[in-house]
Design brief:
By secondary structure, the chain is α+β, with helices and mostly antiparallel strands. The protein is built from four helices and twelve strands, in the order ββββαααββββββββα.
């Protein structure tokens, strides 16, 4: 059941049931004590197999990743309430957008796309000691590809040294699965723009790697000089 209210309106509810193609939409009385604008999704009778993995914490983490862009851009609060949690276990899980690790590429926030709105860019350099990074593809704030490397686009997206998100609001998202995008003219335009962006990011990564190597050399030289001074004493 999905209940929603906007600006103090009547509460409208959409009921959906498993294996029934049609839903029921209509007004619902009561609940006037809640805020003027809100939406509530209530899921009942979850199959036991799914119930074991569909915990409140996991749902909150999933939504924080899937809806990261929308959560950051809109003045909304999202929370998951797990009524199946037992005893003193946590039941209320705020959904907070994921914060990326690494060094931000602050100079690049968007990338032009012919005849479309620009790509929105949030990229970070992730040093090797911090593990493998991945860049997510989103469409208007909603994730459509967990890792650009899986799309076999080559460097720099498969380098593991990048983390962050690229948002292409104009893509037509694949229906049903909501993963991937429709291979049409918009998709081709996106891929062309991404190749140009990739060249820029590759040069940026190379600059970071050089700076880190130089910093490591200088640090090593400082340590060696200190060792020699200690020996001389």
């Amino acid at each position: 059941a999905m209940r929603s209210r906007v600006a103090g309106s009547e509460v409208t509810v959409l009921h959906l049931e498993e294996e029934k193609p049609d839903g029921r939409l209509g007004p619902e009385r009561g609940q006037k004590s809640l805020e003027p604008t809100w939406t509530e999704v209530v899921i009942r009778d979850v199959h036991p197999t799914a119930q074991r993995v569909l915990t409140g914490r996991r749902l909150a983490e999933y939504l924080a990743f899937e809806l990261r862009g929308q959560l950051l851009e809109r003045n909304v609060r999202v929370r998951v309430v797990d009524r199946l949690a037992r005893g003193s276990a946590q039941q209320d899980f705020p959904v907070r957008p994921l914060r990326f690790q690494g060094v931000p590429f602050a100079e690049l926030r968007d990338w032009p796309v012919p005849d479309q709105v620009p790509l929105r860019i949030e990229l970070y350099y992730l040093p090797e000691e911090h593990g493998q990074g991945r860049v997510t593809l989103a469409c208007a704030g909603t994730t459509v590809a967990d890792d650009l490397a899986a799309l076999e686009l080559g460097a720099p997206w498969d380098s593991g040294r990048l983390t962050g998100i690229i948002d292409a609001p104009f893509l037509d998202v694949a229906p049903g699965s909501r993963r991937g995008f429709v291979p049409n003219d918009k998709a081709e335009t996106f891929l062309v723009a991404l190749r140009g962006l990739g060249e820029k990011v590759t040069a940026w990564l190379a600059g970071f790697e050089r700076a880190r190597a130089e910093e490591a050399d200088q640090s090593l030289h400082r340590r060696l000089r200190q060792v020699f001074r200690d020996i001389a004493r």
